Structure formats: C-alpha cells, structure tokens
Amino acid sequence: MARRGTSFNCQNCGAVYQRWQGRCDACGEWSTIVEEGAAPPLPGGGRSLSGRAKGRVFALESMKGETRDSPRTLSGMAELDRVTGGGFVRGSVLLIGGDPGIGKSTLLTQACAALARAGQRVVYVSGEEAVAQVRLRAERLGLADAPVELAAETNVEDIIATLSQSGAPALVVIDSIQTMWTGDVESAPGTVTQVRGSAQALIRFAKTSGACLILVGHVTKDGQIAGPRVVEHMVDAVISFEGEGGHAFRVLRAQKNRFGPTDEIGVFEMTGRGLAEVANPSALFLAGRDLTAPGAAVFAGMEGTRPVLVEIQALVAPTALGTPRRAVVGWDPSRLAMVLAVLETHGGLRLSGHDVYLNVAGGLRVQEPAADLAVAAALVSSMTGAVLPADAVVFGEIALSGAVRPVSLTGARIKEAAKLGFERVVAPASADTADMRGIRLTVTPHVAELVASIAASAPKRQRKPTDSDVER
Ligand code: TYD
Ligand code: MG
C-alpha cells in the first residue's frame, strides 16, 4: 500500500495506482510503475482548491470574434517547417520525441542556428550536455558562428527567471525535459511527477511570454525515466523523429498538431556534417534497387500531401519449423497476416508451409492500407520466382473478399511515378486514372488476377517453389 502522500506512477504513460503492480494496465508496459513522493501540482500555479472560498468571475466569449492567423516563425529548414505546418507558432509548445542518438539535438541545433542567423533571439538549454559539448557539435556542423545563446541548466525556476529577464526569445529549446527539475515537486528528476511539473512550469512561461518552446523527450523502453507520453496531452504538437538503426534516413513525423496537419513527414539524411534535408525522398528510397531479383515491388505511397515511392521486399521460403515465421520491418504485422490469408483463400497460394519476411527498404514505416497490393505483388513474386517489371509501380487496398479497392490521391501517385521514369501502374480502376501521363495502367480488380499475371511470367524451367505452390 502507498503511504500517505505517495502514489505509484507509471513512468511510461503517467497512470497512477494505489499499490505497486508489475504491469501497467493503461499502456501495457512492464516494470514501469514506481513509487513517488508528493502528488503532482495542480494546473494553474498549484493553488489549493480547498483554500478558495469563492471562484473569480470571468467573461465568456463568443465563437465569432476577431481571429488572426497565429503568427509563425519559419525555421528556415523546409522539411521541419513542412511538419510543423508552416513554421513555429508564437507561444506554442512542441514535443520532439525519439530514441536516444537518433539526432534530436543535431536537428534542433541546426534549426536554432538557422533561426538565430535570421536575426531571431534563440536560447538552447541543454540539461544533458555541458556547454562545451554543445559547442563542439555546433563546430562539427559548421554553425559555431550562429548567435545562439547557450546554457547547461536543469532547474526550471532558474531557467524561467533567466529567460524572463531580458525580452522573451523567439525560440527556446529544452534538451531534454527528462533532465529538468522544479523545486515545487519533491521527486527525483526524471520521474513522472518531476517531468510533468517541469513541463507545466515551462509551458506556462511559453504561453505568457509568447516564446515558442521545444521540449525534447527521449523515448524510453525500460521505464527508468519517464517517457514523453507523460507530457503529450499538455503540448500543442507532438513530433516524432524516427529512423532504423543502420540507415542514414531520418523521418520527422507529426503525431498531434493543433496548428497544422498530422500526416506530413520530413525526410532527412544523417551525414558527417549533420542532417541534410531530402527534397526528393522517392529517388533516395529507390536508390540501389536490384532490378533482376524476384520479391521486390515498388509501392507508390502518400505521406501527407507528398507522394513517396518505396521498394517493398518480400522473401517467401519453405519453413523448417512447425509454425512458419512471419517477420515484418516497416509495416503492420496484422495487415501482413490479412494479406497472406487473402492470398491463400482467394489467390490459391499455399503459404502456410512457408516463412514470410517483409521489409520496407530504406527504413521508412508505411502506414497506408494502399500498400496491400504492392505487398501481395512482392510476396507472389518471391514465391513464384517471377521478377516484377522494373518500370512498374503498384498500389491498391485489398479487401477480405480478395477484391482490390481504389485508394485516394491516385493522380498524385501516378504523377510521381511518371516523374521518376516509371511506365506502368498496377492498380484498381478509379476515377482518378483519367490522366495517365503516358503511363500504361494494368487494372487489377482482384488478387486472383494479380497472382495469375505474375505466375504467368515466372521462369518455366528453374521454378523454385514448384507448380504445387500455385494450385491453379
Ligand atoms: P544527437 O543529435 O546527439 O542525438 P540525440 O540528441 O537524439 O540523442 O546525434 C546522435 C548521433 O548523430 C551520433 O551518434 C552521431 C551522429 N551525428 C552524425 O552522424 N553527424 C553529425 O554531424 C552529428 C552532429 C551527429
Ligand atoms: Mg541529445
């Protein structure tokens, strides 16, 4: 049981419990519940509700009224501005989450420098690194001359006092929120209570001063320090910085944004001199493609308003185990299970005796159902040994009946494919396919037709998985 005044808080999602338990019911994480001291401070300055006899009367306003566009400050990095929805909004708070070492500090150092060079006042507060380390990184990035004001501080009250002293800055970066602590709360730094208390104080400062505040939050798996989910609901925008280990690509993705779209991505490449913006991600994701191997299909996808072409790779191999393996990188495993079931039931493929591996090349995470048909094409290609045409892109959503359904923004997908020199599109028919820009459309209304057309082009003699794999 908790002693008086203490509670057990999940360090991942912030759920509060009366007693300790091994697994958090709210987020499902194990070993993330920790006993903490004082209760979290009340929003709005920590005044006790019971101490107030009467409430203050305030004026209610109408929905119609003077509306001004929120003033925005462009960071000067096009990919970052695309994700924020057109620049930083005054008085807004952004949370940038990501695994340690993914490049959050690098990205923000570059954004700060660009903004400072454009004449804005920018303050970068590091709670993790000494000023000398931050300087070293700036030197490595070739940005040491940018007039960014640096500090290595962790106490929120000190930071706010310093920032309030001389005119509010345009941008304040706190790297990271998990290292901050406030004297108002009696908990160790890094715990849910501290992270929440510090974030509240800093957010209050941003709202009153008009400075844009960026909080860095480490995504943690082990629950030793509180995760960014604890502050997600308090901020205006949540942006995640993702990348696969071993790949140089980094994808910036908005998960919540009160001032802009949430489906835009920004693509960067980590180089020896910092993050380089990638204006044409399709060309990058398709670079180094093997055009002669079976099991690869090019998917014409959309990331927000931008079409992105990626290669989907599949490997279907006879299994040596009782239960065949299914491994997926960059796509939803349950979606793969569905496509496999449809191919088996309506496409006549026998996949239950095969291991299936699926990979989205380049480290991108595809989230659209439109990738179904490309995944199916890659799977059939790998299984039959038939190489798909190198100049074809594939997209379409597969229904449980085996029918292929049209997807949104077909026109934009075709345009991007044409731009990159593709000449064929394998997709369901849709109203958007009127303007084909010289591209040949292979209408595929059902997965059975996809299987038949790919199997027909399979090499006749050295067919590896033999005729018995395709029943018809
Ligand atoms: P960093 O921004 O410190 O990551 P985070 O703040 O998310 O923990 O960057 C970490 C990695 O980036 C580090 O392993 C080195 C690499 N890096 C480069 O490859 N090039 C560079 O110019 C810089 C500054 C870092
Ligand atoms: Mg860092």
The residue ranges in which pLDDT falls below 50 over 5 or more consecutive positions are none
Number of domains: 3
Q: What percent strand? A: 15-25%
Bound molecules: thymidine-5'-diphosphate, magnesium ion
Q: Which structural class fits the helix and strand makeup? A: alpha/beta
Strand order of the largest sheet: 8-7-9-10-6-11-12-13-14
As a whole number of angstroms, the C-alpha radius of gyration is 26 Å
State the helix count. Answer: 11
Oligomer: single chain
CATH topology of the largest domain: Rossmann fold
Give the biggest beta sheet. Answer: 9 strands, mixed
Describe what this molecule looks like in 3D:
- The protein is α/β, with parallel strands linked by helices and 472 residues long.
- The chain has three domains: 6-37; 72-279, Rossmann fold, CATH 3.40.50; 283-456, Ribosomal Protein S5, domain 2.
- It is 25% helix and 24% strand.
- The strands form five sheets. It has a nine-stranded mixed beta sheet with strand order 8-7-9-10-6-11-12-13-14.
- Helix 8 links the parallel strand 17 and strand 18 (354-360).
- It binds thymidine-5'-diphosphate and magnesium ion.
